[in-house]
Amino acid sequence: MGVRLMVVDDHRLLAEALASALKLRGHRVLAAAAPAAGAADLVISRAPEVCLLGTAVPAEPGIFDPVVRIKQERPQVAVLVLGPVPNPRGIAAAFASGASGYVRHDERIEGVERAITKARNGEAAVAPALLQGAFGELLNPAAQPDDEGQRLLQMLTPREVQVLVRVADGEDTRVIAAGMGIAPSTARTHVQRVLMKLGVGSRLEAAALAARTGLLDRAAAAASGG
């Protein structure tokens, strides 16, 4: 028997595509809505069994406030966070808010369906290794570095730091390649590695994360040799 569910994501095409795929597999998708600001109200009014709630930056403060409100007013609704490649801190924040699990944006539809079933049954719908890391963060948050910008900077090579600064300046791949004296394919590879290491899905998200954590200032100083 299909699950009564909702898909709510800022990216309308993603939400509608996922909703359509789940409908084809026999589930009853109540709605696929784009605006995150109204996510909680929509879910509370429809009261599905499971809600897939999209997020772009899992570790951003307040990003899971809609989950908290949904669980306060509709505790029977299982909320699955739908997001980019996660880190323990982001998953810990999701579980702390009351979410039942975390599903990556690039997960296959079969994986999404398994997560939905687990969430409806009251199980944690997340990979064991990620869950272990999340519990470690919840139990020992002091183990995380205080300076998030410095931690992220240490993940990048000097060349990737230069690329991040140029990405934040709005340069496209060809401009980055020309400015650094490298092939466009090499520049593209550097950009993809930066996105992967920062756990974001787009250049805009990378720039926003770098600015918010102070990484951009540190990267600019490092890139200039300061």
Provide the descriptors you would attach to this structure in a database record.
5 strands, 55% helix, 226 residues
Describe it for me?
Residues 149-214 form the HTH luxR-type domain. The protein is built from 12 helices and 5 strands. With 226 residues, the chain is α/β, with parallel strands linked by helices. Strands 2-1-3-4-5 form a 5-stranded parallel beta sheet, with helices on both faces. The longest helix has 15 residues, at 184-198. The radius of gyration is 19 Å and the shape is elongated. Residues 142-146 have low confidence and may be disordered.
Query: Strand order of the main beta sheet, please?
Result: 2-1-3-4-5
Rg, nearest Å: 19 Å
Which percent range fits the helix content? 40-55%
| Residues in β-strands, percent | 5-15%
Largest sheet: 5 strands, parallel
Can you give the mean pLDDT? 84
**Strands, total number:** 5
Short description:
Pfam families: GerE, Response_reg. This protein has 226 residues and is α/β, with parallel strands linked by helices.
What's the structural blueprint in terms of helices and strands?
Blueprint: E1 4-8, H1 12-24, E2 28-33, H2 39-46, E3 50-54, H3 65-73, E4 78-83, H4 88-96, E5 101-104, H5 109-120, H6 128-139, H7 148-154, H8 158-168, H9 173-180, H10 184-198, H11 203-213, H12 215-223
Parallel strand pairs: 1-2, 1-3, 3-4, 4-5
Helix pairs in contact: 2-3, 4-6, 7-12, 8-10, 8-11, 8-12, 9-10
